[in-house]
Amino acid sequence: IVAATGDNGRGVCGVSRSAHIVPIRVYNYETGSDAGATTSALGKAYDYVIENKDKLGIRVVCMSLGVAYSAPFSPDDLLLSKIDEAFAEGIVTVAAAGNNAYNAYEKPYDCYPGDYETVVSAINLQTASSIGQTGSLAFEDAKDVSRAASSNRNAPGETDKNISAPGTRVLSTSTSESYGFGSNQYLNGTSMACPHVAGVLAL
Predict the structure, then answer these.
(1) What are phi and psi of 97, to 5 degrees?
(2) How far is Cα 160 from Cα 108, in angstroms, rounded to an integer?
(3) What are the E-state strand segments in the chain?
(4) Residue-level pLDDT, tens digit, the chain, 203 residues
(5) pTM exceeds 0.90 for this model
(6) 21 contacts: CB under 8 Å, gap ≥ 6
């Protein structure tokens, strides 16, 4: 989504196809499919980013992840301090706004790190024809674009979520040298909107 090569007759073209990606692993899949990314791992990743920002030309961090905190848990100071440090070094972080609107949370809006002040949070947009369709999408009028029902959004009076981007039925690359994930060629969610925004910021 961010930097896929264009004009090669394969799949899609990245938003910023001249950009270079610096992959940093923060998820631990060796302990099971449900294993997540710890704030300690994310903090170490930011240390690497900051240390190598000039050498590798890093200007944007794209994180298609997030968590909705509820008591007794609260936003993590370690991760926030690393994000703020990167921001002070001229590195912008983009994160997913979250997909909790369908769930029965008392307040289905919070999602960190996207809600931090120095993070750009991406909401999932959909088009009228992207709902329940399996074919390719055509460009549509702006009036046919809306926020996906599953996407987190701002509560009245709040501004934590910053921008909306395409996130429904998005075709992307996979680790199997093909497009899509398994038999599902199109993916949905704010994790798809996030790299669209990161790609624009990388331009």
Answers:
(1) -75, -20
(2) 13
(3) 60-63, 92-96, 119-127, 145-147, 163-166
(4) 898 888 887 777 889 988 999 999 998 766 555 567 788 889 999 999 999 999 999 999 999 988 876 555 567 789 999 999 999 999 999 999 988 866 545 555 788 899 899 999 999 988 765 555 544 444 455 557 788 888 888 877 778 888 889 888 887 766 665 655 554 467 888 999 999 999 999 99
(5) no
(6) 2, 3
